[in-house]
Structure formats: structure tokens, C-alpha cells
Write a structure and sequence with these properties.
Layout lengths: L1 H25 L3 E2 L11 E2 L3 H17 L13 H21 L3 H15 L12 H21 L6 H18 L6 H20 L8 H21 L3 H7 L1 H16 L15 H4 L4 H25 L5 H23 L1
Antiparallel strand pairs: 1-2
Helix pairs in contact: 1-2, 1-7, 2-3, 2-7, 2-8, 3-4, 3-8, 4-5, 5-8, 5-10, 6-7, 6-8, 6-12, 8-9, 9-12, 9-13, 10-13, 12-13
Length: 332
């Protein structure tokens, strides 16, 4: 039945994305390449709104038409979670259309995520509740934005997100109860797989901020749930590259007295593109990296070997060094 569920939403995602692609052209929801753009032709954007629609549709159909065959306990303050997703999606879609100032986006994210701290049971954590709320807000908002920052090459973020949710899917197979994060992974995986057909090089459709912010929100939510379940090592492995690349790049920006949100395309994974390396080659390397990460995460889960997350950090560092080598070679 779960395979049936997967196939249904894979096919629905393909259909909805194709419809959206045509509508975005009709209504001129187009990403026009500029001087700093990676792509060279006008491309429909904002397809992340389809991710959100399919996600809500999956919840509705599961609870009404499919007789809850994927049973899960509604998370704490379930309605707040759904309202938060809707709010972020609408703000992000408007941003794809009109461009909202980064500070306004940040303020809205901080406000929504602060309210979302009520989604977690923090009573059993041996830390000050104020400190916990601060850490959750900081981690979650930071995760949302660095996921957004890595949406710069055709298929790159899609593959990373597929790996994250597949890792969570594997983790859920080894837990006692099928819970809401299992449902999230089972819903997001077919959506991303369908989107990959449109987003692989050369992409004919972009998810826009609507998609990357939505994915960042869910990745942040799931990550916190796993961390509170004392499996921080799994999250370290699944987000190793994203955190290392974006954090190092943001530090460089601040040292140069540049705004953190400045679109300078200076992330490590973009260096090969700037040196005329094809997006297909970068994507191939990224897929190999993600397959290795999945192997490491599977070993962590099956054998409960938390120290293996260090191997993921080493692997992520090697990938950054590989991307950086293109900059050094061009200079020489």
C-alpha cells in the first residue's frame, strides 16, 4: 500500500508540474537570467507551490479517501504546523513573483518559526526552556536559508533533498512506530523524484524560493525531531555538505563586510560552473557523494554507530576541496 501511495503521488506530481510549467509561461512567472545567473535562458520558476499543493493533497487524501492506511499520530499542535507551511509558501511564492527584501523575509521566518517551537515537547530536555527555544529558532531558520542558498545548479538541491528524505525514510524503518516524519518522507520523495525530470540539466523548470523554503522548513522540522530523539549523528551526516559549504561561505562574506544574503554565487559548489565545468558533471559528482552518504547513514542506523558521522564530515570536506580545486586550476 505504501508503494501504491508513492506511485500515486509521483504521477500526480508529474501531472501537476507539467500543468504548472505551461501556466507559468502563460502568466509570465519566469526567471530571467541576469549578469550573475548560472542559466542562460528564461525558465519557468516558482514550481515549489506544486510541492506544497501535493503535500497538502496527500494529507487530505490519506485521511479521507485512503482510510488512513498510512497511520501516524498527529504531531503536537498539528494545525500550527500546517498554517506555518501555508504562510511560508505564500510569502515565498510572492517573493518569486515580486522580490521581497531579504530582511522582511528573515523577519517573517523568525516570527513563524518562533511560533513553531510549540510543535516540540521540550519538557524532558535538561536545558533552560528559553535557551532551547533560542537554539531551535536559530537552527531552523539557518537551515531554511542554507537550503535555499544551495538551489543554484540544475538538480543539485533536488538530489541533496532526495538523499535527506531517503535517509529519514530508512531511519523510520528501524523505529518502533510509523510517525509523521515517515509520512513526510514518503510524500516528499515522489514529489522530488518527479521534479528531478524537469530540473536535471538543462532544467526546464525551477522550484524558486517557494520550493527551497518549503523543503528547508520540512528538513529543519524533521532534523529537530531526530535530534530530540538523540540521533543528532544522522542529521550531521545528511546535512554535512550543506552546512560546511554555506557556513564557510557566509564567514568569508562577513570577513569581506558583505551582506550574508548577497547573491554573489560564491558558494563552493558553484566554483566549477564559473570555470566552464558543465552542470551535468557537477551533478554526477554530487550524486556519487550522496550515494556514499546514504551508505554511511544506513550503517549508522543499522549498527547504531554514531561516530560514523565523522566520516560524512570528512567526505563533505573532500567534496568542498574538489570544487575549490577548479578555482586554483583556473588561476594557475
Amino acid at each position: 500500500m505504501h508503494i501504491f501511495f508513492f506511485l500515486i503521488f509521483f504521477l500526480l506530481s508529474l501531472l501537476f508540474l507539467k500543468i504548472y510549467q505551461r501556466l507559468s509561461i502563460k502568466f509570465n512567472i519566469i526567471d530571467i537570467p541576469g549578469s550573475l545567473s548560472i542559466h542562460s535562458k528564461e525558465t519557468p520558476t516558482g514550481a515549489g507551490i506544486v510541492f506544497v499543493i501535493i503535500f497538502f493533497l496527500s494529507i487530505f487524501l490519506n485521511q479521507t479517501q485512503f482510510d488512513n492506511f498510512i497511520k501516524f499520530d498527529n504531531p503536537k499542535n498539528y494545525l500550527i504546523l500546517l498554517v506555518a507551511i501555508s504562510s511560508l509558501a505564500l510569502i515565498s511564492f510572492y517573493d518569486d513573483l515580486k522580490n521581497i527584501h531579504p530582511l522582511i523575509r528573515l523577519f517573517s521566518q523568525l516570527s513563524i518559526i518562533f511560533i513553531c517551537t510549540s510543535l516540540f515537547d521540550l519538557t524532558n530536555i535538561n536545558l533552560s526552556i528559553k535557551l532551547l527555544i533560542f537554539l531551535i529558532v536559530y537552527f531552523w531558520v539557518y537551515t531554511i536559508n542554507i537550503i535555499n542558498f544551495t538551489d543554484g545548479i540544475d538538480g543539485f538541491l533536488t538530489v541533496n533533498a532526495l538523499t535527506f528524505f531517503l535517509g529519514i525514510f530508512i531511519y523510520c524503518q528501524y523505529t518502533v512506530n510509523i510517525n509523521f516524519i515517515y509520512f513526510i518522507s514518503l510524500t516528499i520523495l515522489p514529489i522530488l523524484l518527479a521534479y528531478f525530470f524537469f530540473n536535471k540539466p538543462k532544467a526546464t523548470l525551477f522550484m524558486g524560493d517557494t520550493g527551497s523554503i518549503f523543503l528547508g522548513f520540512l528538513i529543519g522540522y524533521v532534523s529537530i525531531k531526530i535530534i530530540l530523539n538523540e540521533r543528532f549523528d544522522i542529521i550531521i551526516s545528511l546535512l554535512a555538505y550543506t552546512y560546511l559549504d554555506c557556513t564557510l561561505t557566509l564567514i568569508k562574506k562577513m570577513l569581506k563586510k558583505q551582506y550574508p544574503w548577497a547573491r554573489l554565487f560564491d558558494y563552493f559548489f558553484l566554483i566549477p560552473i564559473q570555470n566552464n565545468i558543465s552542470a551535468k558533471k557537477i551533478l554526477t559528482v554530487n550524486i556519487i557523494y550522496n550515494l556514499l552518504i546514504l551508505i554511511i547513514v544506513s550503517l549508522q542506523i543499522i549498527y547504531n554507530q554514531k561516530f560514523l558521522c565523522l566520516l560524512s564530515l570528512v567526505l563533505a570536506s573532500l567534496l568542498i576541496a574538489y570544487f575549490s580545486s577548479f578555482s586554483n586550476s583556473s588561476k594557475s
